[in-house]
Write a structure and sequence with these properties.
- The chain has 21 helices and 26 strands.
- The chain is an alpha/beta fold.
- It folds into 3 domains: about 70 residues, Urease, subunit C, domain 1, CATH 2.30.40; about 120 residues, Diaminopimelate Epimerase, Chain A, domain 1 (Roll); about 350 residues, TIM Barrel, CATH 3.20.20.140.
- The strands form 5 sheets. An 8-stranded parallel β-sheet has the order 8-17-18-19-20-21-22-23. Strands 3-2-7-24-25-26 form a 6-stranded mixed β-sheet, with helices on one face. A 6-stranded mixed β-sheet has the order 9-11-13-14-16-15.
- The longest helix is centred in the middle third of the chain and has 18 residues.
């Protein structure tokens, strides 16, 4: 009763409301709904995990009963939870790692840090592999320094060294010891979906692109197995990170059976705090032998997905599913589709993203070598029928395509599927879409394709200003075309690719709007806008990180906006991002995260 009186209700009014009592009522807030008009309300009521009222304080008062928890927002902003459309880092790790933390490094600084790791007995000895994480290759100083195996060979160790790239992630740098173990020489052919880079003398230079890296990494002994109970615990700890950041649904590209099993166990134990969607990883060989692959992914879904724990709306698009009205408040695990990788990355020195026109060389002239237009790993003859057949079997295709040639190839495949399956709406996705030809901007909307983009990469930085701009020339003004796709009628969703760079979804939103970042006085070359393309409006940005992600996951009827009948997946913020300066959006903290009406994160100061 004290809570009711604090909410401004008389005892008589409280008694009258008992029969309509909600579980939770949020009052006195700025509730940004992301409905069709981006309406703003004062209050919201939740019963059995669903929103039963959005509107005024007085209207919400009718839903306050004896057992209702009333939360006075004191003017704070509420919005739908974040829908993360492309994220990898879904579990914490117990393993100690050698981590370069994506810092700017000179060659001497790099060598000193790797030497310190070589001297650390916890990171191996003798002839053990040393794995190093997060070398920001484009941030080697001075600018223009190209990674080379000689940087590691100078350390005079017998150990093979593998350094994983930060930010871009599609390449590794290894020393000669590692090349020798993998028997990689000047005569070793490029593997499918990969490339071995060479120096001017024709010798491998230590840079291995995409699947070429597997030639070395497959030789690394696996770490000691993590006990099943601990694996579930580590995944649960990561979910707490997600909840604190405001994530209420997420999509994982490139998963396997073991990972999905962990999350089903986590769900059984009540530790799954966001709606989980998984795409099964595919290899080139899988697409060449698709019948066996179809059987494999269908078996994984049949054995691991539990339809009764998933709202009917999420599954209704699948041809083998009947429409239903089941709405499940508790987060579940969805085996949503298949990850297909068409190309690599656009950044120098890799330049494996498939382009319609050649990359430029250091002198600004079009390259003429065999890799001048990057690498298209899968062509339409193989891709088109697989995408169409996956749709018929109820699987979305989540296609990695960064260069404009790869993006067009993916769009052509989706157009083929739309012709083959005119009644199916799979909500297909292109991940990244960093360079798109203007002729293809409107095709995203026309073909109902979501572009799940790393919004934080639309800023000046070593991986854009230094590693892309000089090699694209005027085409750099087509880089990260979030606004152009949106203006053309397409949907852009948040796909942070976490955690290739710091996990900060609110900076991602800020960068999508401003297309700039504060590098301070130390790096004046990264001041200003990334290129001539405009950013999203704030309303478009908020929609990208909420409703559009829900649409990508077939959840738009139950999440992504705060409307009557939808699930109460929402967050409370410490500041109103519609009223603060745009460059303060990245300073946002989440005070409360609610999933299906359950508070899965509450900041102690809230």
């Amino acid at each position: 009763m004290a809570a009711l009186l604090g909410a401004g209700l008389t005892p008589a009014a409280a008694g009258a409301a008992t029969s309509l009592g909600a579980d939770i009522v949020l009052r006195n807030g700025f509730i940004y709904t992301v409905d069709k008009r981006d309406s703003v309300a004062k209050a919201l009521a939740v019963r059995d995990g669903r929103i039963v009222y959005v509107g005024t304080n007085a209207g919400a008062g009718k839903y306050i009963g004896e057992g209702t928890e009333v939360i006075d927002l004191k003017g704070r902003m509420v919005m739908p939870g974040l829908h993360e459309g492309h994220i990898h880092d879904i579990s914490r790790s117990d393993r100690k790692r050698c981590d370069l933390k994506a810092e700017p490094l000179t060659v001497k600084q790099l060598q000193a840090k790797v030497r310190a790791c070589l001297d650390d007995p916890e990171l191996g000895s003798g002839t053990d592999f040393l794995e190093v994480d997060n070398l920001y290759m484009q941030f080697l100083r001075p600018a223009g320094t190209t990674p080379h195996k000689s940087m590691l060979d100078a350390l005079k160790t017998k150990r093979p060294i593998v350094i994983h790239a930060a930010i871009t992630a599609h390449n590794i740098l290894v020393n000669q010891n590692a090349l020798d173990l993998a028997k990689i020489t000047s005569k070793t052919p490029d593997p499918p979906q990969g490339r071995i880079d060479h120096d001017r003398n024709g010798e491998p230079n230590g840079l291995l692109q995409d699947s070429a890296g597997d030639l070395v990494t497959k030789l690394i002994p696996p770490p000691p197995p993590v006990a099943p109970e601990r694996a579930v615990e580590l995944a649960g700890l990561r979910m707490k990170d997600y909840s604190k950041e405001g994530i209420t649904s997420f999509f994982v590209p490139g998963s396997g059976r073991e990972e999905i099993e962990i999350f089903q166990k986590l769900q059984d134990e009540g530790g799954l705090t966001a709606r989980a969607h998984f795409a099964i990883w595919s290899r080139l060989q899988d697409l060449r032998e698709p019948k066996a692959f179809y059987r494999e992914v269908e078996k994984i879904r049949a054995e691991l997905e539990r339809p009764e724990e998933i709202s009917s709306a999420v599954l209704a698009w699948r041809p083998d599913q009947k429409k239903g009205s089941r709405v499940v408040a508790e987060p579940g695990v969805v085996v949503a589709g298949v990850k297909i990788m068409l190309d690599g990355i656009v950044q120098y020195p890799a330049q494996t993203a498939a382009m319609l026109h050649p990359y430029l060389d250091a002198d600004g002239k079009p390259r003429k070598d065999k890799s001048a237009r990057g690498e298209l790993y899968i062509g339409p003859k193989l891709l088109n029928p697989v995408v169409a057949e996956l749709e018929r079997r109820g699987f979305q295709s989540h296609v990695h395509a960064i260069g404009d040639r790869a993006v067009r190839t993916a769009l052509d495949a989706f157009a083929y599927a739309r012709t083959a399956n005119p009644k199916i709406r799979a909500h297909e996705t292109i991940a990244h879409a960093e360079v798109v030809d203007p002729a293809d901007f409107r095709r995203f909307g026309a073909l109902d394709v979501t572009a799940s983009m790393g919004l934080q990469w639309a800023k000046p930085a070593p991986d854009s200003t230094d590693a892309v701009k000089p090699y694209l020339g005027p085409r750099f003004d087509l880089y990260e075309p979030t606004k152009a796709i949106t203006k053309g009628g397409g949907k852009v969703s948040l796909g942070s690719d976490c955690c290739l760079d710091p996990f900060d979804e609110w900076f991602d939103l800020e960068a999508a709007v401003l297309r700039e970042a504060d590098w301070g006085k130390e790096f004046p070359q990264y001041a200003g806008k990334v290129n001539k393309l405009p950013g999203l409006t704030l309303a478009e940005g908020i929609r990208a990180v909420t409703y559009n992600g829900a649409y990508q996951m077939h959840q738009e009827k139950i999440t992504g906006s705060l409307e009557k009948g939808k699930l109460a997946d929402l967050i409370v913020l410490d500041q109103n991002i519609t009223k603060v300066p745009l460059d303060d959006i990245s300073e946002t903290d989440v005070l409360m995260t609610m999933v299906g009406g359950k508070q899965v994160w509450v900041d102690p100061k809230f």
